[in-house]
C-alpha cells in the first residue's frame, strides 16, 4: 500500500512531466550547480529526494540543442581541410617523396620489323618528381635470340646503361639497335626497367615499361619437297631448301628435324652433326642457299598420315647443339598407301633412296615383289629400265630375266618365270641383276655429276569385286649417283725436280742421300672437299722442311713422323683437261750397315681422301710406298737402288 507522502510526490512529478496540451515536458539540459555538501556514505530513506530548482527552469530551451549529425559533419569537414592542406604541403614541399608515376619511359620506333633486321629505338626517360633520382640505371631485357647489330655472333640477353643522378625535370636519351629473330607473325617483347635510389633511403626502386614488336618476315625461307603418297616400307627422299633473306651473314645456322613414328633414317647429304636430326649449315651469306637431302624408309598402315617437322634457327651458344630461337618452321605430310603389288629395290644391299656407286665397279641390284591383294594376279611381269649414258651394256647380266640392250630394259614375265603366270594372294619373291659403268672420262672430258636411274615397274591382271578383269601396277625408282675418281700418284727422283739433291748414288751406309718426293692428284667428275694426303717417314729418313710450291699446305709431325698435305677443295676435271694438283718435298736417307744390299723405303704408303660434293661419298685412293728404286727418274740405272758399303 502506497503511503500518502509517496503518492503526493508521484502526482507532483506527473504534473511536471506533462503540460496542459498533453505533450511531454522535456527538462532543459543545464549544468547543475556545484553542491559542496558531502556525499552521503549510504542511502537515507528519511530524507525526501527533491528535484533541483534549476531542473525545473525553462523546459522549452532543450529544443535548441545541436543534433548529432551536425557534429559529425563538422568533424569530417575539419579533417578534409587538414588533409588538403597536408597534401598541398607535401606536393610543394614534400622533400624526399618520389613516385614512380612521375617517372616516364617512352620508346619511339617501328612496331614491326623483319627477322634478322636491326630495330632502331629511341628511349627517353624523364623525372617529373620534385626530388632527384640517384644511381639510376636502365636495364633492357631482350627476347631470346636477340643479337647485336654490330656483331651478329654476339647475343643480347640483357643490357645495362648507367645514368647516374637524374635531377627533377631532367631527361635522359638512349638509342639502341638490336637485331630480333623469330617466326613470322610472332610478337616479341623488349622490357625496360629503370632502377634508382632516393635520398636518405637504402631501398632500390624501379619503373617498368614493355615495348612489343611484331616480326613481319623471317631471315630465311624453308621449303620441303617430297612424295605426298608412298607405299609402306618404301624408301623416300626429302629435300630441304633454305634461302637467306637477310642482308647480313647469318652465323652458325642450324636445322633440326623431327621424324614421325615409323620412319627409319638411312642417310643424309650433308651428314648431320648430331645424331640423325641436326645440321649446322655454317655461315649463310646474304641470298645464300643450302640444300639438305634426307633419305629413309617409312612404314605404317594403309591410309595413315605421317608428318615431318623442321625448324631452322640459331644455337644457344657457339658450338651448342640446340636451337635457341627458331626463325622458321615447316612441315611435310606423307600418306601411306598399301600397293596392290609391293616392290622393293636395293643396290648392293642398300635400300636407301639415294644410292651411290663407284665408277667402273660392278653393282648387284635386288628387287623384292609381293602380291598384297586378297585375290590372284595373272600374267604378272616386272620390267627394269636403265637410263644414263654411263651404262656398260656388256656388263648387264640378269638372273632368269631377259636383257634387251637396244633400250636397256630387263623383263621378267611368265615366259622367263612360271610363277608369274598365276600369283596367289600373299605370294612374294626376289629378282636380281648386275651391271657396271663406263669410265667417267669420255672424249677427253669428265662427265659432270654422273647419274644412273633404275626404274622398276610391275603389272598384272586381277578380278575385281564386280567380277571384271582389272589392271594393277606398281612403280619404284632409284637414282644412283656415281662417285668421282679422285686419284693419287707418287714418285721419288734424284736427278730432277725443284730441289738439288746430294749424296752418293747408289746410297751408302752411314752416308746421307737426299731425294725429292712428288705427289700428284687428279679428279674427274665432281668437286671434292676436305681432301688430304697422308704418309709416314721411316725412322732413318729425315724431313728437310723444303716444299714446292710454297703455297701448298704441307706439314710434318716429328712425333708421329707423319706428313700431311692439306689440299682442301679439288675441282672437277683436275688433271683431266688441265694439269694435276702437285707438290714436291725433300727428304734425307741415312741407311745403316744392316741395310747394305737392300733397297730401303723412302716413304710409306700415301693415302688420299676427300668427300664427293655431288653425293657425299668418301672418295680417294692409296699409292704404294716409295723405295730407293726410283724408276721414275729418267737418269736412274739398275743397281742404283741397292745400298752399298
| DSSP strand content | over 45%
Q: Which class do the helix and strand fractions yield?
A: mainly beta
CATH topology of the largest domain: Immunoglobulin-like
Mean pLDDT: 85
CATH architecture identity of the largest domain: Sandwich
How many structural domains can be distinguished in the coordinates?
A: 5
Total helical elements:
2
Brief digest:
This protein is mainly β and about 650 residues long. The protein has two helices and 43 strands.
Give a topology summary.
Elements: H1 4-17, H2 68-93, E1 103-108, E2 112-114, E3 121-127, E4 133-141, E5 147-148, E6 158-166, E7 171-176, E8 178-179, E9 187-197, E10 205-217, E11 220-225, E12 229-231, E13 234-244, E14 254-258, E15 263-269, E16 278-280, E17 289-298, E18 305-315, E19 323-337, E20 341-347, E21 354-358, E22 362-371, E23 377-387, E24 397-398, E25 402-404, E26 409-412, E27 422-423, E28 428-436, E29 441-442, E30 445-446, E31 451-463, E32 469-483, E33 486-493, E34 513-523, E35 528-536, E36 541-548, E37 553-557, E38 562-570, E39 581-589, E40 601-603, E41 606-612, E42 618-623, E43 626-627
Parallel strand pairs: 2-10, 12-19, 21-32
Antiparallel strand pairs: 1-3, 3-7, 4-6, 4-9, 5-8, 9-10, 11-13, 13-17, 14-16, 14-18, 15-17, 18-19, 20-22, 22-28, 23-26, 23-27, 23-31, 24-28, 25-26, 29-30, 31-32, 33-34, 34-39, 35-38, 35-41, 36-39, 37-38, 40-43, 41-42
Question: How would you explain this protein's 3D organization?
Answer:
The protein is mostly beta strands and 645 residues long. It folds into five domains: 4-64, no CATH class; 100-217, Immunoglobulins (Immunoglobulin-like); 220-337, Immunoglobulin-like (Sandwich), CATH 2.60.40; 341-483, Sandwich (Immunoglobulin-like); 486-627, Immunoglobulin-like (Sandwich). Strands 21, 23, 25, 26, 27, 31 and 32 form a seven-stranded mixed sheet that branches. The model is unreliable at 41-64 (pLDDT under 50).
Amino acid at each position: 500500500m502506497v503511503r500518502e507522502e509517496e503518492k503526493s510526490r508521484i502526482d507532483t512529478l506527473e504534473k511536471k512531466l506533462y503540460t496542459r496540451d498533453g505533450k511531454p515536458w522535456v527538462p532543459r539540459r543545464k549544468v547543475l550547480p556545484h553542491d559542496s555538501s558531502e556525499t552521503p556514505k549510504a542511502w537515507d530513506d528519511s530524507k525526501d529526494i527533491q528535484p533541483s530548482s534549476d531542473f525545473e527552469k525553462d523546459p522549452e530551451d532543450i529544443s535548441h540543442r545541436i543534433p548529432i549529425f551536425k557534429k559529425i559533419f563538422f568533424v569530417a569537414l575539419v579533417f578534409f581541410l587538414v588533409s588538403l592542406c597536408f597534401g598541398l604541403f607535401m606536393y610543394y614541399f614534400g622533400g624526399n617523396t618520389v613516385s614512380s608515376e612521375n617517372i616516364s619511359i617512352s620508346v619511339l620506333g617501328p612496331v614491326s620489323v623483319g627477322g634478322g633486321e636491326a630495330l632502331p629505338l629511341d628511349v627517353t626517360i624523364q623525372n617529373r618528381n620534385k626530388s632527384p633520382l640517384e644511381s639510376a640505371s636502365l636495364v633492357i631485357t631482350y627476347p631470346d635470340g636477340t643479337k647485336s647489330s654490330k656483331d651478329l655472333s654476339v647475343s643480347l640477353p640483357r643490357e645495362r646503361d648507367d645514368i647516374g643522378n637524374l635531377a627533377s625535370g631532367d631527361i635522359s636519351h638512349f638509342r639502341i639497335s638490336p637485331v630480333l629473330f623469330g617466326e613470322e607473325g610472332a610478337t616479341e617483347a623488349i622490357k625496360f626497367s629503370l632502377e634508382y635510389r632516393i635520398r636518405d633511403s637504402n631501398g632500390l626502386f624501379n619503373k617498368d615499361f614493355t615495348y612489343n614488336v611484331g616480326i613481319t618476315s623471317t631471315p630465311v625461307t624453308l621449303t620441303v619437297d617430297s612424295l605426298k603418297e608412298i607405299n609402306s616400307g618404301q624408301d623416300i627422299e626429302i629435300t630441304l631448301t633454305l634461302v637467306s633473306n637477310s642482308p647480313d651473314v647469318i652465323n652458325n645456322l642450324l636445322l633440326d628435324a623431327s621424324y614421325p613414328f615409323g620412319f627409319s633414317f638411312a642417310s643424309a647429304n650433308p651428314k648431320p652433326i648430331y645424331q640423325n636430326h641436326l645440321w649446322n649449315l655454317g655461315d649463310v651469306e646474304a641470298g645464300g642457299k643450302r640444300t639438305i637431302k634426307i633419305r629413309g624408309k617409312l612404314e605404317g598402315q594403309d591410309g595413315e598420315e605421317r608428318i615431318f617437322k623442321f625448324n631452322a634457327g640459331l644455337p644457344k651458344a657457339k658450338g651448342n647443339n640446340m636451337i635457341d630461337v627458331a626463325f622458321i618452321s615447316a612441315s611435310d605430310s606423307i600418306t601411306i598407301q598399301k600397293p596392290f603389288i609391293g616392290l622393293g629395290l636395293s643396290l648392293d644391299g642398300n635400300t636407301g633412296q639415294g644410292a651411290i656407286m663407284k665408277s667402273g665397279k660392278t653393282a648387284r641390284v635386288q628387287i623384292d615383289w609381293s602380291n598384297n591383294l586378297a585375290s590372284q594376279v595373272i600374267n604378272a611381269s616386272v620390267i627394269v629400265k636403265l637410263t644414263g649414258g654411263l651404262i656398260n651394256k656388256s656388263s648387264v647380266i640378269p638372273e632368269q630375266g631377259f636383257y634387251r640392250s637396244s633400250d636397256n630394259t630387263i623383263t621378267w614375265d611368265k615366259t622367263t618365270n612360271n610363277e608369274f603366270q598365276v600369283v596367289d594372294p600373299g605370294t612374294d619373291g626376289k629378282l636380281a641383276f648386275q651391271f657396271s659403268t663406263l669410265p667417267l672420262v669420255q672424249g677427253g672430258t669428265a662427265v659432270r655429276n654422273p647419274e644412273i636411274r633404275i626404274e622398276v615397274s610391275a603389272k598384272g591382271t586381277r578380278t575385281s569385286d564386280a567380277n571384271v578383269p582389272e589392271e594393277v601396277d606398281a612403280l619404284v625408282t632409284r637414282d644412283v649417283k656415281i662417285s668421282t675418281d679422285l686419284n693419287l700418284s707418287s714418285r721419288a727422283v734424284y736427278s730432277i725436280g725443284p730441289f738439288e739433291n746430294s749424296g752418293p748414288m747408289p746410297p751408302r751406309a752411314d752416308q746421307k742421300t737426299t731425294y725429292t718426293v712428288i705427289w700428284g692428284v687428279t679428279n674427274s667428275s665432281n668437286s671434292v672437299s676436305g681432301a688430304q694426303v697422308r704418309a709416314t717417314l721411316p725412322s732413318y729418313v729425315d724431313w728437310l722442311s723444303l716444299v714446292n710450291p710454297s703455297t701448298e699446305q704441307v706439314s710434318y709431325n716429328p712425333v708421329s713422323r707423319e706428313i700431311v698435305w692439306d689440299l682442301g677443295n679439288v675441282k672437277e676435271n683436275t688433271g683431266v683437261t688441265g694439269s694435276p694438283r702437285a707438290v714436291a718435298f725433300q727428304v734425307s736417307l741415312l741407311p745403316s750397315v744392316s741395310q747394305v744390299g737392300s733397297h730401303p723405303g723412302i716413304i710409306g704408303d700415301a693415302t688420299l681422301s676427300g668427300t664427293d660434293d655431288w653425293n657425299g661419298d668418301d672418295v680417294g685412293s692409296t699409292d704404294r710406298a716409295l723405295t730407293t728404286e726410283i724408276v721414275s727418274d729418267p737418269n736412274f740405272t739398275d743397281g742404283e737402288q741397292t745400298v752399298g758399303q
